Amino acid sequence: MSAFISFPDDFIWGAATSSYQIEGAWNEDGKGESIWDRYTHTPGNIIDGSTGDVACDHYHRWPQDVAMMKALGLQAYRFSIAWPRILPDGRGRVNPAGLDFYSRLVDGLLEANIKPVVTLYHWDLPQALQDTGGWPERSTAEAFAEYADVVSRRLGDRVKTWITHNEMWCASVLSYELGEHAPGWRDTAAAVRAAHHLLLSHGLAVPILRANSPDSEVGVTLNFEIMEPASASDADRQATRTIDGTYNRWFVSALYGRHYPADIVAHYEPHLPNGWDFVQPGDFDVIAAPIDFLGVNYYTRRIVRDEAAPDNLPQTHFPDLPKCDMHTGVWEPVYWEIYPDGLYQLLNRLHFEYQPGKIYVTENGTSFADGPDGSGHVPDARRRLYLRDHLSACRRAMDNGVPLAGYFAWSLMDNFEWAKGYQQRFGIVWVDYDTQQRTPKESALWYRDAIAHHGFALD
Ligand code: FCB
To answer: What class, spelled out in words, does domain 4-457 have in CATH?
Structure first.
C-alpha cells in the first residue's frame, strides 16, 4: 500500500489567476488602458504577437468559471483586480461598472462556497499613471493607497483575505530594469525606485485594508527561486549571493523590518546617480506594517554562473532535472527545472529567517502544452506529478513547523502568459482559445480528488 499524504482539515486548497491574463474586455464598460494594454499593442514585445484583449473572456464567462471551480471542489480562488477598471485614470474618477463586476464575482464565489482571495495589483497599472512616471515615482504609491481604499470600501465586507501586491520583483526589476515586462524599461535606477515605491504602497495600504475590511487578513505575495552556484568558484558564489539578494532577500527583508540588505545596497549604489534620495524618513516603518501572512510563489531553481569571470571553475555536475516548457528570458530561453525539494527548502528558509505568522503558497505550477487526446480528455501526467510532488514538499515543511495554511495552484486555467503569450499553458484546465471551451485536465481531476480527501496517495 502506498503512503497517504494527508493535510489538516482547515488547510485551504485553491487556484489562482490574474486579471490581465484571463479577463479580456480590455476596453469595455469604462475600463481605462493599462500598461499591459499599451505594451501588447506595441509590436515586438510579445513572443507571438498576442494580446490580452480577449484572453479567456472571463469578464463575460465568469459565472461558468465559478461553476467550474465549484465542480472541482476549490475552497478558495485567488484573482486580481484590474486597477484601470476601477479608476480608469489611475486616480480620482471611480468607474462604478468596474466595482460592480468584482462585486458580482465575489458574490458568485461566496454563493458557491469559495473563498475570494483578492490581489490588488498583479501588474496592470493604469497607463495614465505610467504617463506620470509609473512606479519610479512616489505619487504612484499614494495613488495605490487611494485605489486600495476604493476597492476595500466596496468589497471589504465580503473579501476577508487581501494581497496587496503580486511579485514586486517582477513589477520592478523585470519591468523597469530587464525590460521584459511592461512598461519595458531598461533602467536600473528606475527599477530600484520602483521597488521602493511598491513596498511603500503596500505599507500604506495595509492599515486602509484593515480599517475597511474588519476581521480580514492582509498579506503580500513575493516570488522566490532557489539559487545555486554553477561551480564552487568565488565568482559564481558571489554572483549567486547577489542574485539571491536582489531577487529573494530585497523585498522580504524590508517587509520584515530589516531595511534593505547591506550587500545589495552596495551593489545598487553605483547605479543610483542621485543616491537614495527617494527613501524618505519613516518609509521603512511604513513598509514593515505587520502583516498576517506571506504569500509565496515558487516555480523553479536557478543555477547561477558568472559568465564574465576569468578564473571560473568548470560547472559542477547537477543531476539532470526534468524541465517544463516555461523559460526565463524571452529570446534566449533557459528552461525551468522542476525541483519540488526547492519548495521545501524555501519554506523552511522563510520560516527560519523571517518567522511569518502564516504562509500561503499563492502560486505554484508548471507549463506543458499537453492537449486534448481526441476523446475529450486532457492527459497531463507531468503536471499531475508536479502538483503531487510540490504538495508533498509542502507537507514535509509543515511537519517541520512551517505555518503553511493553504496552497493555490497556478493556474486555474490556461491563460495569457505575459511576454510569452499563449504558447505557455499553466492551467489545470485546458482552454480552447477558438471556442473558449474549458476542459479540466487530468491534473485538475486529481486535484479535485485530493481536495475531497484532504490529501492523496503517493503512488
Ligand atoms: C508568476 C506570475 C503569474 C504567472 C506565473 C507563471 O510570475 O505571478 O502571473 O505568470 O508566474
So the answer is: alpha beta
